[in-house]
Amino acid sequence: MENRRVVLASRPAGWVTEDNFRIESCPLPVAGQGEVLVRNLWLSLDPYMRGRMSDANSYVKGVDIGELMVGQTVGEVLDSRNEHFKKGDKVLTQLGWQLYGVAKELTKIERTDVPLSYCLGVLGMPGFTAYFGLKEIGQPKAGETVVVSAASGAVGSVVGQLARLWGCRAVGIAGGAQKCEYVTRELGFDACVDHKAGNLRRDLERACPKGVDVYFDNVGGEILDTLLARMNLFGRVVVCGTISDYNATEPYRVRNLRAILVNRLKMQGMIVFDWRARYGEALAALAGYLAQGKLKYRESVIEGLENAPAGLIGLLKGSNFGKQLVKLG
Amino acid sequence: MENRRVVLASRPAGWVTEDNFRIESCPLPVAGQGEVLVRNLWLSLDPYMRGRMSDANSYVKGVDIGELMVGQTVGEVLDSRNEHFKKGDKVLTQLGWQLYGVAKELTKIERTDVPLSYCLGVLGMPGFTAYFGLKEIGQPKAGETVVVSAASGAVGSVVGQLARLWGCRAVGIAGGAQKCEYVTRELGFDACVDHKAGNLRRDLERACPKGVDVYFDNVGGEILDTLLARMNLFGRVVVCGTISDYNATEPYRVRNLRAILVNRLKMQGMIVFDWRARYGEALAALAGYLAQGKLKYRESVIEGLENAPAGLIGLLKGSNFGKQLVKLG
Lengths: 329, 329
Hints:
Two copies of one chain form a homodimer. By secondary structure, chain A is of the alpha/beta class. Chain A is built from ten helices and 15 strands. Chain A has two domains: 150 residues, Quinone Oxidoreductase, Chain A, domain 1 (Alpha-Beta Complex), CATH 3.90.180; 149 residues, Rossmann fold. Chains A and B meet through helix 8 and strand 13 of A and helix 8 and strand 13 of B. Strand 13 of chain A pairs antiparallel with strand 13 of chain B.
């Protein structure tokens, strides 16, 4: 048996292209003492991966040229030299873009009531990001208006549904009529604004007649700038992603920062790792809503490791629909 | 007896000029039932006044053309038709740029251990702004580095001294060598960077070898942008003033906002009115430090109402030194 993996071939200048990746074959790794050999079944694709492909300063070190692309996976234990795991166990790992890997730090997935892949989405990092970002930084109060960008994505879709569950008006921003329809009809948001329609400011005004109390920002750039000018007194801006800047060679320059003073806004960065100690709380809440049918969740599945690069490129361009996964098994 | 007052003659486009003001004579007002006639002794000049001269959206309605310029004053009661005040009482009012006025909402000044004018500075709004902005939004921990811009001003000078009193490294930013020397030698800051010297980034790096944990921003614009890139993980930015934008016809566009995400910064707007209910706490703390000689305070005094416009223009250009007052009495 041999392993296959995707490495970073070159750093993107602007948009990511397939040339930035290389697929390699290599021998199957062997588990050492305390380690576990895992066959990856699902690879999660996430916007943060764009950051790792760059050598710009970020919250985690980037991937070096020739190194394995990082990523979270769900897999099955093939061989274990760790007393806590046995063959056949399902596990959550950080094994990256490859078919097999040897892991030391991994988590057993005990839950069998939902598909395994949910641990990479609604019951994993994206779900927890939505939960803590909205609850702890957004601090929404019943009756307030919550706006979230990338509303049909893995994080945004949960943010808006939680906002509704917690008594708020939920307004999404998404690219294209089809996504907007999904966000309102399927996910139950009160409204969704199509930022590709070219009337973001006016459309937001209509969708948020009482202004915006919480803006959960997954995109940064011009959409953030437009929202800043729509925030209510004491509004909160959850800064969770800057996808619009990921592929720009120069960062967008924000014009409406004075709104922070005028309206006493609080703007705060959100990275899910900071909430590690409370993952259990988020998992219990999200799994509960899911079991009660109160939380809808959609996956977008690509088959095969060789299609992962195209999958990430699509994700960065917004062509996915729901949580983007690569099926490896 | 007649009254004299300064009204807004026209709105400034960019920098304020003396043409934007007009001095008028008018009859002395008469106190009605429940009102008090006050002779103003001191008028406070503050950067926020530039905002009131504009019709742009702000946290308080602007002054209309032909209307009295707003401002806080300290005065003496000449005639009272309000049972809580009597002739000779010293009072804090919002009577604006005039020699006499009739007030309904005013505060008696009981304190006699400090000059009356202190109620407009270190023991008034600027002092309270520094206290709550630093304590509640900046939340400095001992050993952290606190940077404050407009460091020789009414707010900045208190921010840095409180930072030192609370166990932090205090670094000021001020315009010119003379102000910087005052900030370090007189006020006891650990360092002060001259933003006019043209090496803000490098000089900040030297003054803050461990990075910046709290940035108390009185100026906005390029200085804020530079600081964003120097903030430590979980740093706090207190957004208190945007004086650099007040006189620009186009707002400065901030480039380094991504730092909010990468370093999980919290950036929050601060207006002192929001803390009204706790003014007593700030007053007790600041008066205590002052009495113990732990808090230094400097005033910059202009004589005569007719010189108030030039005083505000100087303040906006940074030519004042310490709290800017107009002596009317």
